[in-house]
Specification:
Strand content: under 5%
Helix content: over 70%
Structural class: mainly alpha
Number of helices: 10
Order of helices and strands: HHHHHHHHHH
Distance between the termini: 47 Å
Radius of gyration: 17 Å
Length: about 190
């Protein structure tokens, strides 16, 4: 019944749910799964209504999605939610918020999961749709290439490889403009 619902009503519902769930911070698997589904339903409603979703709602959804993107049982829902958010808000806003949210997380799994999702997004929609966030995304991926986790480094290189395929010399220029880049990482990226 999403087509009949008023998108404005969803904001009131989310404010109520936020108050009942400690600002959407839940550790219970079933509650987190329901929160992802609720945010997905809100996105579907806004997609149908062809309306842009408020940034605070996107940020709350991203916090949940990024935190659970590496959870085997929630990966699909979290990934779908991030993609849907890119349809109801500018993709560069979603990418910038996602990177901002994942950076302080110590576990490498959400980093790897978000890098993998970013690569999938670039496959499906094109890296050029990131517009202003291309630079942010490339710098973040380069930063992840210098990390200690092998899987995260590999996922970052795969993302950079996909972006190189789509952006070509523009990606190389972004890499070369990063003065703080370690020489080993620069060599790996130059070989793409």
């Amino acid at each position: 019944k999403a087509k009949e619902a008023d998108p404005n009503c969803s904001i009131h519902i989310l404010v109520f749910i936020k108050a009942c769930t400690k600002n959407f911070k839940e550790s219970n698997f079933n509650l987190v799964k329901c929160l992802i589904e609720i945010f997905q339903a809100v996105c579907d409603l806004y997609i149908t209504a062809k309306r842009q979703l408020e940034v605070w709602i996107c940020e709350a959804a991203i916090i949940i999605a990024v935190g659970k993107i590496s959870d085997k049982k929630l990966t699909n829902g979290a990934s779908k939610l991030l993609s849907s958010l890119c349809e109801v808000q500018l993709p560069d806003v979603i990418f910038a918020l996602s990177i901002k949210i994942v950076n302080p997380i110590k576990s490498p799994l959400p980093h790897e999961g978000l890098l993998t999702w970013c690569k999938g997004y670039c496959d499906d929609f094109g890296a050029f749709t990131l517009r202003k966030s291309i630079h942010t995304c490339v710098n973040w991926a380069l930063e992840e290439c210098g990390g200690t986790n092998v899987n995260t480094r590999a996922a970052a290189l795969v993302l950079l490889g996909e972006m190189h395929t789509q952006l070509g010399p523009a990606l190389k220029a972004l890499v070369m403009s990063n003065s703080g880049l370690e020489s080993a990482v620069r060599t790996k990226v130059e070989s793409l």
